[in-house]
Fold this protein.
Amino acid sequence: VRAAIRAFEPERVELAPNLVEVERAHERFPYGYLPRDVERLLREAFDCYTASCYTAFAVVCRHAVAAALEPLDAAARRRWQELLREVLEIAEVDTDYARAIESTVFGDPRRLPTLDEDEAAVLIEVIKDLFYQAYVRTAKLQAAVKMRRFFAGERARKVTPIERARRDPAVRGS
């Protein structure tokens, strides 16, 4: 962020009220959960957004989604479309923006998507949420369930079943 200096005195500096954005911060995302080709495209999309190249950002987002859906079946595409609609509804995105975002992500690949700055700001949050839901949340949930099952299995091996304890006096300590 850059600001013009209104006054410069030994004890204080007064800045102009209008700030100018010089460069955006890079978007943060847990890329380690993504397949390599999807990660590369998503990083490039976020770099395009950071550079304020909104059409390039939209195109690369579309390619990142296509790369993510490529190994999956047609039902996965429908699930992603439903998830996109749900995200837009949760975020209370108005109908015009929602249509623009949906056509950007799932529209005709022969047509170049065009977004303004506001639509791109919505799209980046939607894309981050889509990929988080599809990869990060899924992987974390699977890991947590696997760990719970492991510890449940460990505990089950160390605990004597009630029925066996009732019929086996050696287990009861008698």
